[in-house]
Amino acid sequence: MLRRGFIKLATVTLTAAAALVVPAGAQQTASGEAGTVQATAAQIQHLLSGNTIKGSWSGADYTQYFDQSGFTVYIEAGRPPSRGKWRVREDTDQYDSWWENTGWTPYTVMMTNDGYAWVNRGELEPFEILEGKQADF
């Protein structure tokens, strides 16, 4: 993925919200954020599959759609859409993205008190879930 930024939580279906409730006694991330826990592979698959996210990655706003087939489109503000692939790895509980210039790259998804976030160099990049395909490409 050409991700430069991931975003805040906005809208999640009731089923997705119920499936991704942050458990009591959640652990801390590498950056020391209280109330965060790593999402499992099954939770990540449910959260992303067929949905769109919005966020900011290292300060750049983006929208990304995750097709159920493993196709993804990343749209950064002011740039043309980038097409790639995505998958979830059960052995590591991580999301992987594939882009022509980088190949497969793993990312950790965290559930926080405020929603969801990617881990980017030890920092949390919050993102918002939008139900279904909500990106023009």
Structure in words:
This protein is mainly β and 137 residues long. The chain has a single domain, classed as Beta Barrel (Lipocalin). The chain is built from two helices and ten strands. The protein is globular, with a radius of gyration of 14 Å. The two termini are 16 Å apart. The relative contact order is 0.30.
Question: Structural class, please?
Answer: mainly beta
**CATH structural architecture:** Beta Barrel
> What would the CATH topology be?
Lipocalin
Q: Helix amount, in percent?
A: 10-25%
Q: Which geometry do the CA atoms define?
A: globular
**Alpha-carbon distance between the termini?**
16 Å
Give the mean pLDDT. Answer: 82
Provide the low-confidence segments as ranges: 1-29
Number of strands: 10
Q: What string gives the helices and strands in order?
A: HEHEEEEEEEEE
Output the radius of gyration. 14 Å
In short:
The protein has 137 residues and is mainly beta. It has a single domain, classed as Beta Barrel (Lipocalin). The protein is built from two helices and ten strands, in the order αβαβββββββββ.
Comma- or semicolon-separated keywords:
Lipocalin, mainly beta
Give the helices and strands, then pairings:
Layout: H1 14-19, E1 37-38, H2 41-48, E2 51-57, E3 60-66, E4 71-76, E5 82-89, E6 94-99, E7 103-107, E8 109-112, E9 115-120, E10 123-130
